[in-house]
Design brief:
This protein is an alpha/beta fold and 243 residues long. Helix content is 40%, strand content 21%. A seven-stranded mixed beta sheet has the order 3-2-1-4-5-7-6, sandwiched between helices.
């Protein structure tokens, strides 16, 4: 029973269903990411590299021949992440044009030098290879002190074009009133979180789930706002080699 509860809880953190309204303090952020990544997943094919893979939470969404995870080489990452390879934060440990697709979820804000990062993504991608990248726009500082930037849609488009990518589709996730309620819950979470997951669950149900429910209801009647959103989700294609 305990194992099943843990599996259910972990699934709801990245693929929130109706139950997630009550037990996930990041319900809107994770719902938006899961839905948009799912929509773009058919374009991601072949041999795939997941840069900053973490626990590989979205791996099951992709029908690919090979799924390779890459992470920064640290003691914590070697212990807690599901990476297949580790690197020092500069050159990827792969040959040129090795991958058909690259994905990178909520990583770019932690990259101090995006030029090096994106040039490496370009290098390891085959010609016409696909890049699926998600980047937060409105979010609090996290994983301190390794949180370096927030990118507007204009900034991301400029960076990707500069490094040889053609944008196929660009989406703004949670570009409505739900962003306000997600920020409230993110604030409440940081101010109430403890080392006891059961206490955290009770707090989420009693204190944060009402904001999830209210946000969902209001999003049905209030207008969208493309100038204020949680995340950028971009599907791009390698158009030329970046030197």
């Amino acid at each position: 029973m305990k194992i099943k509860f843990k599996q259910l809880f972990e699934r709801e953190q990245f693929y929130p269903s109706l139950l997630g309204l009550f037990i996930n303090p990041f319900y809107f952020a994770r719902k938006g990411l899961a839905e948009n990544i799912h929509d773009f997943s058919p374009f991601v094919t072949g041999k795939i590299l997941d840069v900053g893979c973490g626990s590989k939470p979205y791996q099951k969404l992709f029908n690919v021949s090979e799924y390779i995870g890459l992470e920064i080489d640290s003691e914590d990452n070697r212990k807690n992440k599901k990476a297949d390879y580790f690197y020092q934060g500069d050159n990827f440990p792969f040959i040129d044009e090795e991958f058909d697709s690259v994905i990178s979820n909520e990583v770019l804000e932690h990259i101090f030098n995006p030029d090096i990062f994106l040039s490496e993504v370009n290098r390891v991608l085959k010609p016409q290879g696909i890049l699926l990248i998600t980047v937060p726009f409105v979010w609090d500082e996290h994983e301190q002190p390794y949180d370096y930037a927030r990118y507007s849609s204009f900034g991301l488009k400029h960076l990707l074009k500069k490094h040889g990518f053609k944008i196929l589709e660009y989406r703004k996730s949670m570009n409505d009133i739900r962003i306000i309620f997600q920020l409230i819950n993110a604030y409440l979470y940081k101010k109430t979180v403890t080392s006891n997951q059961y206490v955290n669950l009770i707090t989420t149900i009693s204190l944060m789930s009402p904001f999830n429910i209210l946000g969902e209801l209001l999003s049905k009647i209030l207008p969208k706002n493309d100038d204020l959103y949680l995340d950028s989700i971009i599907l791009a294609q390698k158009e030329k080699i970046y030197e």
